[in-house]
């Protein structure tokens, strides 16, 4: 559906479509362990978050130069614009690239070549959010934050992603304190595969303004009550939840119950190249399968701008 919307949960590396992956592999002379795009697509059968992450990190090998990151971001922005996205807050995973020997500047400058002209070229305003890999150490996250200081004019906030269970938010307390001291906005993945207690910890220990996923809050009525009272936005990703088997089938997704409970939900695409759809596809899927009313869909679109890091005057232009 192409209702104007903001996308608040989108990993730019998760927008790498098989065709672009092979094009970049050729350009950079990187061998991929798949014969062609068809064989690669067959690998998109995931058991859980980790089985997806294995492929997600493997394919990043084709991203080598500023131009690669620019092409990746431009391809995403064009697709997003075609599905009604007017504003995108884009995650990237610096450590996934620096551990392969890339400079942080290659990643940020490359992305910026696309993001800096996105309003003019695609009609999409953007923000960049740097995520720490929670299955890497807190020291590595802190080094990454320090390395990012020269680029802070281009980075709006920090996030926390990758394998959740066993890596509670508290592990990154000091990093988030340092990020806040630098004036960065804070979000974190919590309650995707991890327990409701991780959501509480992300709010209380990391001081996050939004919770990415937050799906498992539904197991804790007191937490739901708090999230409603404090109007904490949740960036849900319905197609992702199905592909990673967090919910069995889309028809059983808790989104309608979450809206009925008064939670401030948004609908997003997460890793659209892997999970079968961009933001508009996620809207279409929940409309068709969950039978949301037009009023609910308008609420989701409105929430996406309200929960964004746009200033009030910018937000109005988006609607
Ligand atoms: C991710 Cl779906 C998801 N969850 C956690 N971390 C991620 N990184 C990229 N996609
Ligand atoms: Zn995510």
Give a topology summary:
Elements: E1 5-11, H1 18-28, H2 37-42, H3 49-59, H4 66-82, E2 85-92, H5 94-98, H6 104-115, H7 118-122, E3 125-133, H8 138-147, E4 157-161, H9 173-181, E5 185-190, H10 196-204, E6 210-213, H11 221-229, E7 233-236, H12 238-243, H13 255-260, E8 264-267, H14 272-275, H15 279-290, H16 294-306, H17 312-318
Parallel strand pairs: 1-2, 2-3, 3-4, 4-5, 5-6, 6-7, 7-8
Helix pairs in contact: 4-6, 8-9
The protein binds 6-chloro-9H-purine (ES4) and zinc ion.
Features:
single chain, 319 residues, TIM Barrel, 8 strands, 15% strand, globular, binds zinc ion
Summarize the structure.
With 319 residues, this protein is of the alpha/beta class. The chain has one domain: Alpha-Beta Barrel (TIM Barrel). The chain contains 17 helices and eight strands.
Report on this structure.
There is one protein chain. By secondary structure, the protein is of the alpha/beta class. It has a single domain, classed as Alpha-Beta Barrel (TIM Barrel). The chain is 48% helix and 15% strand. The protein has an eight-stranded parallel beta sheet with strand order 1-2-3-4-5-6-7-8. Helix 9 links the parallel strand 4 and strand 5. The two termini are 15 Å apart. The model has no long low-confidence stretch (mean pLDDT 97). 6-chloro-9H-purine binds next to helix 3.
């Amino acid at each position: 559906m192409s209702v104007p919307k903001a996308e608040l949960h989108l990993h730019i590396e998760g927008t790498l479509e098989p065709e672009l992956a092979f094009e970049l592999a050729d350009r950079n002379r990187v061998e991929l362990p798949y014969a062609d795009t068809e064989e690669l697509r067959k690998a998109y059968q995931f058991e859980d978050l980790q089985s997806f992450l294995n492929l997600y990190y493997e394919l990043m090998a084709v991203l080598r130069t500023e131009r690669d990151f620019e092409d990746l971001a431009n391809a995403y922005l064009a697709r997003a614009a075609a599905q009604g996205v007017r504003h995108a807050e884009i995650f990237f995973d610096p450590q996934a690239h620096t551990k392969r020997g890339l400079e942080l500047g290659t990643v940020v400058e490359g992305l910026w070549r696309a993001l800096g002209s996105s309003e003019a070229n695609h009609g999409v305003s953007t923000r960049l959010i740097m995520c720490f890999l929670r299955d890497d150490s807190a020291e590595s996250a802190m080094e990454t934050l320090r390395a990012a200081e020269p680029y802070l004019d281009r980075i709006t906030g920090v996030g926390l992603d990758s394998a959740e269970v066993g890596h509670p938010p508290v592990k990154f307390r000091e990093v988030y304190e340092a990020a806040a001291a630098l004036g960065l906005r804070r979000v974190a993945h919590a309650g995707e595969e991890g327990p409701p207690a991780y959501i509480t910890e992300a709010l209380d220990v990391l001081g996050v303004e939004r919770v990415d996923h937050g799906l498992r809050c539904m197991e804790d009525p007191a937490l739901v009550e708090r999230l409603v009272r404090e109007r904490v936005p949740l960036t849900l990703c319905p197609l992702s939840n199905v592909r990673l088997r967090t919910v069995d089938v889309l028809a059983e997704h808790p989104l309608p119950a979450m809206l009925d409970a008064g939670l401030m939900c948004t609908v997003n695409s997460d890793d659209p190249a892997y999970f079968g759809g961009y933001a508009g596809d996620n809207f279409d899927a929940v409309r068709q399968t969950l039978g949301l009313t037009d009023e609910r869909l308008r609420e989701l679109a409105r929430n996406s701008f309200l929960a964004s890091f746009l200033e009030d005057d910018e937000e109005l232009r988006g609607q």
